[in-house]
Every structure is written in structure tokens, then in C-alpha cells.
Amino acid sequence: TRPPSDLLAAMVSTAVHHARAQAATPCAALASTALSDARVESAEVNATGTVAGGRGAVLTGVPDFCRVRGLAAPSPRSRIHFEAWLPLTGWNGRIQMIGNGGYSSAINNNELAALVRKGTAAVATDTGHQGGKLAFGFGNDDAIADWGHRAVHESIVSAKVLATRFYGRAPRYSYFTGCSTGGHQALMEARNTFLRRARL
């Protein structure tokens, strides 16, 4: 027979394993996640080890991850696309958003893949439009607001809900990286977060 201490340790380990297994949600099931002002368009596992990079490149050595594509619409004319890449194993409890440059709507797969390789949940958005010129804002104040501040906020709020459901626990640390417009995005989110909390 096993010593009482070993038996107790085994029971605790089994209980923790089952609790985590019950808390975690399969990737495909994230498609039904209820989000505020947003919806999941697709959720699927990428287990190929590769992903398309910029300028036709193919990125290799990418760990298996759950790729979630979503659409946020905080206003009637908003169409904010975002992606959340969630590592299947080895998640480090962190979530990090990638900023954009200029008026670009590009979602940077290279940087998303780099984060997944580190075990970090990664997020990016097209800022609510397609293309890299300011024409998207002509006669559309909603699109300007989305680019200016709403896209980042809506995307990271939804991504945190998805990560929490997927892993069974909320991210412990949140980060944002970017330059040029990415710096503007980070400052606007920090400013607006402060103002929202100040009103509580």
C-alpha cells in the first residue's frame, strides 16, 4: 500500500487535473462565446506548425494554437475585425496586443506567431477598416472613432473573455507593443481605461 502522504498527494494532483480539464474549453467551442458588442466568426486549431507571414512568407516552427477570428460592432457602422491566437499548451498566463502602423489595417502574423512561440496569448485588430489610407474615414465618423480608440479596446476586451474561457482562468498580465500609431493606440487605451475607472 502507498504511504498516506503519497496517496493524499496523488488525490490532490488528480483533483487539480480534473478541475483544470473541466474549466478549459475546446477551441471550436469558443465559436459560441457570448461577447459584448462582438461575435466570434471562427475558432479553429492550427496544428500545421506553419502560418502565412508577410509578403508571401511562410512562418515555421509555430506551436499548435487556437486561432479565433472575431468581429466587433460597437456602433451600427463599425466593422472591427480582430484575431486572438491562444497557445494550446504552455500558456504563460500573459496576453499581449500588437499595435498597427499609420492607417494600416494589417494584422501582423509575424508578431502574433512570435508571441505564441513564447507561450503568450496574442491579439491584433484591423482597426475597423481595410487598407492603409485615410479614405476610410471620409464621411464616416464611426470608422475614425474605431481607428482612433475603439478597435483596440473592443478587441482586447473580447480576447480576454475568450482566453479566460479557453484556459479556465483569466490572464494574469496584459501587455501592448507597438510604435507610431501603435504608441497612439496604447496611450488612448491607457487614458480611456483611467477615465472609465475614475467614473466608477
What does the model show?
The chain is of the alpha/beta class. It has 4 helices and 8 strands, in the order αββββββαβαβα. Helix 3 (141-167) crosses helix 4 (181-198). Strand 2 and strand 3 (58-60) form a beta hairpin. The strands form 2 sheets. A 6-stranded mixed sheet has the order 1-4-5-7-6-8, sandwiched between helices. A two-stranded antiparallel ribbon has the order 2-3.
Gross geometry: globular
Count of alpha/pi helices:
4
The helix/strand order is HEEEEEEHEHEH
Helix content: 25-40%
Strand order of the largest sheet: 1-4-5-7-6-8
Mean pLDDT rating? 90
User: What is the radius of gyration?
Assistant: 19 Å
Count the E strands: 8
Cα distance spanning the termini: 58 Å
Low-confidence stretches: 7-23
Structural class: alpha/beta
Largest sheet: 6 strands, mixed
Query: Assembly type of the shown chains?
Result: single chain
Which percent range describes the beta-strand content?
A: 15-25%
In short:
The chain is of the alpha/beta class.
Outline the secondary-structure elements.
Layout: H1 4-23, E1 38-46, E2 50-52, E3 58-60, E4 65-72, E5 80-87, E6 94-98, H2 109-117, E7 121-125, H3 141-167, E8 173-177, H4 181-198
Parallel strand pairs: 6-7, 6-8
Antiparallel strand pairs: 1-4, 2-3, 4-5, 5-7
Helix pairs in contact: 3-4
How would you describe this structure in keywords?
six-stranded mixed sheet; two-stranded antiparallel sheet; single chain; globular; 200 residues
